[in-house]
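Take a careful look at the protein record below. Let me know whether the structure tokens fit the sequence:
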Amino acid sequence: MKLKLFLLIATFFFTKSATEDAFFWGQNGHRATGEIAESHLNKRAKRKIDKLLNGQSLAFVSTYADEIKSDKAYSEYASWHYVNMNLDETYATAAKNTKGDLITGINTCIAVLKDKSSSSEDKSFHLKMLIHLVGDLHQPMHIGRKEDKGGNSVKVEWFGKRSNLHAVWDTKMIEGWNMSYLELAESAKKVSKEQIAAIEAGTLLDWVAEIHEVTKKVYNSVDANKGISYRYSYDHFDIVRDQLQIGGIRLAKILNDIFS
């Protein structure tokens, strides 16, 4: 049954595709994921989330975890945005960051939100963090190699301008598509109940392993210092769109489980 669900999601999302910087996933990417998640929330979860966020949307608060980086009071959360793994490693075998990482950050947020003794203030903070971190998880370069800082040190030319592999996947391709976050969310692929179930299936570590396979493809998609432009976006932007949508559906799954 699990194999059948995996094949279903793989066939749907990869049919067309041949293949620690500011604003992870970019602002529009995070907002699109939040908007998609909002459309998959059940009524009970939405009501409780509305109360914690004072009516603000998931899209609106999705960039909060990046915004607080400018405040040293929140420096302890910096390592929550990523997890470093060699391409031949799994999360279980990889060396762990003693300051925490993307996986421990997500699990901490979930634990706080499930804890009945947590204050409303703590729940609101960790909810905003969770919304952002699940988005970060689905940006493949957030599960990148330590030696190049998740692709930040892999230099490329993007339309003749100096950039890096991480930035191309965080923001450059999304910016180049020239769509608002609402347009990105509204143009997401139509999914059946079976496809949604396939996306939601598995554990957090199953999702990490799945996304890490995409990470490997991203690293192999460029030659360092080579110019990339229209063709690269044509070959890979479908993966970006898919990851935004998968992240949104899984974020809603997590939130529905917490608040229902």
Summary: The chain has a mean pLDDT of 91.
